[in-house]
Amino acid sequence: MTVVVRTITRILFPIALVFGGYVIMHGHLTPGGGFQGGAVAASALAMVVVAFGAKSLSGKKGLLSALESLGGVAFAALGFLGLGVTFFANVLAGSGGLFGNPVPYGPNPGDLNTAGTLPLMNWAVGFKVLAGLGAVVLLFALFGGEHDR
Amino acid sequence: MTVWAAMLTATLIMVVIASVLAVVLRDLLAAVLALGAQGLLLSLAFYLLQAPDVAIAQAGVGAALTTAIFLLAIWKTRRKEEE
């Protein structure tokens, strides 16, 4: 791609990645969540693949694969964490520890440290979607086409 | 007609225009860009309909990722549509 596209991508890539992280992190407070934030972050990866070519990211295939597996395993493990009550029971909510603050009543600016296992599950789904969609675009760009026939 | 309804109507009209452009354009690169604009305008319509959750997903998947995949597909094949 041209130097204009490359420069814009250099500027926009960290912004899109951070915005995806923001959408994932505030998934239990504001619109958005794991899938939406992961899709936004994956669009940053797709931007790099389109602007700089798939060769620039071909070394990251293992990382993406590991990240996707990690997200899936973390989601299932967080589900099993509540097995003392039921599957997917929210054991961390209201415990006072990690994400354990009680939810304030009525209108409030939003306490990030609430909702128990839900933010962690949002992160797991976010990493899985980011790695999955990123790997789809990356592999689509790497293989096929004129030089593969 | 309220401002909200006017904005929604204008957005939906632009969605239809972009969709028609995506179908009729012979240059596939321009058609893909029209499709991306359609996805972005559709996410704006979802936002105006007070569904910001769907709007974020539509902007991420519909506008960005499908456009990237179609761009890569054009880059790997041909740009002009054949008769």
Describe the structure.
The complex is a heterodimer of chains A (149) and B (83). With 149 residues, chain A is mostly helical. Chain A has one domain. Chain A contains four helices and no strands. Chain A has helices at 3-25, 34-52, 61-81, 117-142. Chain A starts with a helix and ends in a 7-residue tail after the last helix. The model of chain A has no long low-confidence stretch (mean pLDDT 83). With 83 residues, chain B is mostly helical. Chain B has a domain at 26-83. Helices cover 82% and strands 0% of the residues of chain B. Chain B has three helices and no strands. Chain B has helices spanning 3-24, 28-48, 52-76. Chain B is flat. Classes of the chains: A mainly alpha (149), B mainly alpha (83). The A-B interface holds A 23, 31-33, 35-36, 39-40, 42-43, 46-47, 49-50, 133, 136-137, 140-141, 144-146 and B 52-53, 55-57, 59-61, 64-65, 68-69, 71-73, 75-77.
Summarize the structure.
By secondary structure, chain A is mainly α. Chain A has helices spanning 3-25, 34-52, 61-81, 117-142. In chain A, helix 1 runs antiparallel to helix 2 and helix 3 (61-81) runs antiparallel to helix 4.
Measure the end-to-end span of chain A: 23 Å
Main sheet properties of chain A: none
- The structural class of chain B is mainly alpha
- Beta-strand content estimate of chain A: under 5%
Averaged pLDDT of chain B: 88
Helix content of chain B: over 70%
Task: Please give the domain count of chain A.
Answer: 1
What helical percentage do the residues of chain A reach?
A: 55-70%
Number of helices of chain B: 3
Order of helices and strands of chain B: HHH
Number of strands of chain A: 0
Per DSSP, what share of the residues of chain B sits in E-state strands of 2 or more residues? under 5%
The rounded Rg of chain B comes to 14 Å
The multimeric state of the shown protein is: heterodimer
C-alpha Rg of chain A (nearest Å): 18 Å
Q: Kindly, what is the distance between the CA atoms of the first and last residues of chain B, rounded to a whole number of angstroms?
A: 45 Å
